[in-house]
């Protein structure tokens, strides 16, 4: 865990209960049940005041003898010689006086209880005293305790006298001849009066907090989960398999802080893989005994990212991107809960739309790239991040391969053919990248033209042509075609000669896609890219195909400023290569993630179909757009249907909001229509009651006519998405590869 996070052993023991899609599971605690609408502050205060005044009036009438038959219940259970004759007769003997004192105390207790319940004093105390916190809570209860003690000792509240009577009745009247006993009784009375106020004011907690602050040590906190023999930090899976020595070694590494969360995730993944291949168990256990937490390292040797900008839980693969807002659009149970992304969500792909400055790159793309990078270090994922030069995708040392297109200092070039050796496959992917956005041109015909040239060239030279050579072949330059024909004849490649002859017959015909392909290839045949897309034995290209085989972290920087059209072409090419390569994988245990920081003009009909297939091969793509109009209009609906997760950032237009509203659908809601009619009273007494009710509630007396209906309503309307989403927020809809989904949630990014 990062700086300021709990110790690794406590982090491992923290519960992560299964939750609905997108809920931050680390240390999750559910919200308390929803409560109905409470009374207003005015009604609460007036009701408490009326209850208090009524109790004071009733007690005054009792003490002054204005209530008839007030002593009848007491006389029924006491001897008659204690009382004067008549229903109003008072006590005759000292025993009657003492019985009356106890009787009054009981009645006073019932009166206080009834007044507290009727006046709702508990809610008043919680809302206006407890909510203010310490030290106001302690001071308020201390003042109330002092006032209560004063009223007790001066006899206004019948507490001390009944206690003294009861003690004398039990221990005898001579008990008060001892001053020590009397002082003890008085101290017990004072403690009994103060105890409820101490509990309400939480005096003990305040004193403990003050002492901890004074000594410079924090108050003791509860351990999130106590350590047991089966705790996660004791590696119970290794102990159950009999590798006790390896488990003890890792437990010591955790206790002493020589491991981090990535080491834990990496070793757990390595152990899970080894259990499927028993011949790997012994070497893994020996490596653990020899190197501890550094066993089964990532090929780069890195054990963590150089810097994290978001909260990660590597055990579950989650990255927290925000907090669900306290908004009526969000279900009550999801409000204020953390929102997180993980591979089960990214496996359905994610589309984020928002204007520049809305937080797509900093608050969504960067955390996702970090999360996939951490999983790559744990041996569970491979990530390809594509963006413009200077995009906030992470520092260079957070990646294994950094390709800077057009930068002579780049250590790697980019393979336009994706590392494949099949001319037809290379032609199909290259055609999609070159002319996939040209709606009037069939990409299959373009792929055929490229295959008629790539196949013969590879057969003659053993590799695919470089950019200048491919441009000459597409232009039909006689010298290039003649040289290729001569090389094929010399090696006896008659099948490839037929391909070349077919290309010669089709060249220059109506609808020939070669000129358009040549124009697009010319975008890459610039001095800035000279030698960058080289092929042959001396080339040093990075082949995207390796992403499907190794847990690599790759970043591609595109020259967007000086070569915007070439950058869009390369983005389309990388997206097409990624969907084709991941779909052709035979081993899908490694999650493959593609992150496009700007997918403008990169989405084509074929790549939309490829994105739809990613979820079945343990892969996913994250695409960001400034507006949905950056995608051809015919692909708006297919694209929104192909991705399982969508995010609408603040500042989108109503046109974009309409598309999201249609994609998210509607829901049945219960609407209540209330028609209020003022009640006019004719009788003076009724008018007085109405005036009193208006004084208490602050509203005129009305009758309500309520109509309840079930209607179908959009989850988020286009206008709400355009104007009701605050800055720094986004409305995010999530779905998992298993088919679970969450409704669109308003999320405070970074919260």
From TrEMBL:
The keyword Transmembrane helix applies. Residues 211-234 are annotated as: Disordered. The keyword Transmembrane helix applies. The chain crosses the membrane at residues 44-62, 97-115, 136-155, 175-197. InterPro entries: P-loop_NTPase. Keywords: Membrane, Transmembrane, Transmembrane helix. Residues 217-233 have a biased composition (Low complexity). This is ATP/GTP-binding protein. It comes from Streptomyces stephensoniae. The lineage of its organism: Bacteria, Bacillati, Actinomycetota, Actinomycetes, Kitasatosporales.
